[in-house]
Amino acid sequence: MRKILSDILRVKGYASVAAGSGGEAIAEAERENFSVALIDLMLPDMSGLDVMARIKSLSPLTEAIILTGHASMDSAIEATRRGAFSYLLKPYQVDDLLLNIRHGIDRRQAQAEIRRLGEALRQTQQAIVITDADLNFEYANPAFTRLFGYSLDEVTGKSVELLAVDAGLNSVLPAAIATEKGRFNGEALQRTKDGRTIPILLDVSPVVDEQGTVLNYVGSLTDLSDLKRMEESLRESEEKFRSISASAKDAIIMLDESGAVSFWNAAAETIFGYSSDEMLGKYMHKLCAPERLHKIYLAGLAKLVANGQGYPVGQTLELAALRKGGGEFPVEVSLSAVRHKDHWLAIGIVRDISERKQAEQKAQSYVEELTRANAELHNLNAKLTQAHNQLVQSEKMASIGMLAAGVAHEINNPIGFIKSNTQTLGKYVDELLQVVRAYEQVEALLPQHSELFAELHRIKIQIRFEYKKRDILALLDESNQGLERVTKIVSNLKDFSHMESQDKWIMDDIHKGIESTLNVIWNELKYTCEVKKEYGVLPPVECMLSQLNQVFMNLLVNASQAIETKGAITIRTGAIEDQVWIEISDTGMGILPENIKSIFDPFFTTKPVGKGTGLGLSVSYNIIQKHHGRIEVESEVGKGSTFRVWLPIRQSHDTAVVA
Q1: Which of 58, 103, 162, 441 is the most exposed place for a label (fewest CB within 10 A)?
Q2: What is the mean pLDDT of the chain?
Q3: CATH number of the domain at 124-223, please?
Q4: How far apart are CA 553 and CA 492, in angstroms?
Q5: H helices within 247-353, ranges in order?
């Protein structure tokens, strides 16, 4: 049997290793990690559950499928409790086994991806925290612990105000987040566990559900201590330059009316490398300015010596200069014009700003690195949000039946007494009209006393009695029709939810389920398609009708959404031997051949973002599997698709159990 199974798996593209005992299986698991382990519950040397426990201790991500021919509810529960992914009874269908293997591999891959994301959070050097909607810590990575000194256990459940420096800041972060609609990016002072105050760059993003409700916040905290020290150093350098300027430590240079150097201080000698003797009487631009700036230099100097004006005068400019060896470097130049006798002199204060430029470049590089890290964090947050939305969507369908049943129950009682009151009102109106007809008969018998009825005739004309007599009966009839419509809607909601039997196997009417589902989702269908019904004769089917209603709803809604403008949906039913079939066809766009094999996979969807989660057909497939049925698909691109559901009329006694 093991060889046959190995051959089948090989043909299906799976690599497998067969073991004759529990000990051999454990030995193989010690040598190699397996995606899925198929384990017989009864092995010659030990229990299959013990083998599973040992293999999962060696490889926690390995999914185990327990196979047995001697099943009991207790053994199934125990296998699941101890970590089994699935539990199959012998003899089993090969397709069922292959499906479970495929799902086991998919689950292992999903678990591995979650671990990789978690490992990324643990290994990143960026401090990252996750809080609940009330800003209480739920997660903090090791980088946070290294930065603030608090372990995850120490902050879990506590407010982020644990890190606040003083009471005044306690309200800053929540207020900022509320003001920015859940987002915050800025600097803040925070206190570490040992009492130190550190500046941080804080970036907070919300995790929201489809309704926009904030579920969590994800925060990135970057230590700005080094950057602040760098900024402080830069400020000190600038102050030092100003002090040097005041004490003639900057290069102070004077040019005469001809543009020749007439003064060159010691700082100029240091900055440019030329001694005073080398520069006095020389034209500065020829030795200390790059050739590309000569034209601009001479034009500005000509205006200054002519009238003491010009663009550079009174300005502080950053320019390029040349040292004695020819090396180019940046300088900051402040130029003033001074009137001396009958001509203008130029006085320039030149500061070498090479160090400042290097510091600015370093700071810019650091900011770019922070920006990149924040972008990576946003991408990670988007993945977490997507995973959460998928889980929320999978839970929504489970609550639809309960909601529908609750609405039907709440509406049913007031409808009952309104209907009773309307019927009583109709009876009262008939009796009152009988009295009126009696008065009219009396009037006809007493024509000689017509003056006695004059006032009565005036009132009847004034209130339009004849019209209202007819209209009151029409109003009562319309009200009764409306009540019948509401009663039918309530009945359809109850039939759709089937809450009284949703967890019980009972003999039920499939056509009733289809009709109630059509009435519930009619608003989704009526604008795009015509629904045609070609019902055959179906016997009662042992089923959980509320769950089958969910299958019908998913197939009908998908069919409607596949029709782009206007088309038709055809519902056919029939019975063959001990099975019934339900067929739903549409004239929509069809399914690409390469997508058909994946349409029942969880989260697979070809719909635009926000319109589908890829769970409808996966849930439907599982429901039909639980009913020991199957779903067949036929599709042609551009012409439409047909989904055919097969169900047994009766469930076998030992398997008709709620899964």
Answers
A1: 441
A2: 81
A3: 3.30.450.20
A4: 13
A5: 266-272, 276-279, 284-288, 294-307
Whether the CA torsion 319, 324, 326, 329 is positive or negative: it is negative
Q: What pLDDT score does 393 carry?
A: 47
124-223 and 234-350: identical CATH topology: yes
Give yes or no for a contact between 644 and 580, defined as CB atoms under 8 angstroms apart: no
Residue 88 near residue 41 (C-beta atoms within 8 A):
no
pLDDT in tens, 31-43: 888 888 888 888 8
Burial of 46 (0-12, 13-18, 19+ CB in 10 A): middle
Of 583 and 232, the one with more pLDDT: 583
- As a whole number of angstroms, the distance between CA 237 and CA 245 comes to 12
pTM beyond 0.70, yes or no:
no
CATH superfamily of domain region 498-648: Histidine kinase-like ATPase, C-terminal domain (3.30.565.10)
Q: What is the arithmetic mean of pLDDT over 74-93?
A: 79
- On the CB side of 378, CA atoms within 13 Å amount to 10
- Six token digits for residue 530: 């015509």
Q: Is 50 exposed, middle or buried (0-12, 13-18, 19+ CB in 10 A)?
A: middle
Fold of 234-350: Beta-Lactamase (3.30.450)
- Token readout for 78 is 């125990």
- Sequence ranges of the domains in the chain: 2-122, 124-223, 234-350, 358-482, 498-648
Asked if residues 67 and 90 have their Cβ atoms less than 8 Å apart, the reply is yes
Provide CB contacts within 8 A for 317, sequence distance 6+. 332, 333, 334, 335
The pLDDT of residue 137 is 92
> 2-122: what CATH class?
alpha beta
Local structure of 503: helix, strand or coil = coil
- d(CA 586, CA 44) in angstroms, rounded, equals 54
Residue 183's DSSP bridge partners are: none
Nearest one of 349, 330, 325 to 264, comparing CA atoms: 349
Count of CA atoms in the C-beta half-sphere (13 A) of 509: 10
Q: How high is the pLDDT of residue 67? A: 84
Across the range 288-305, mean pLDDT stands at 84
pLDDT tens per residue, range 449-460 = 777 777 778 888
Q: Which residues of 97-120 are buried (b: 16+ CB within 10 A; e: fewer)?
A: beebbebbeebbeeeeeeeeeeee
Please give the Cα distance from 279 to 264 (Å, whole number): 7
- Sorting pLDDT into bands at 50, 70 and 90, what band is 658? very low
Residue 534, beta-bridge partner list:
572
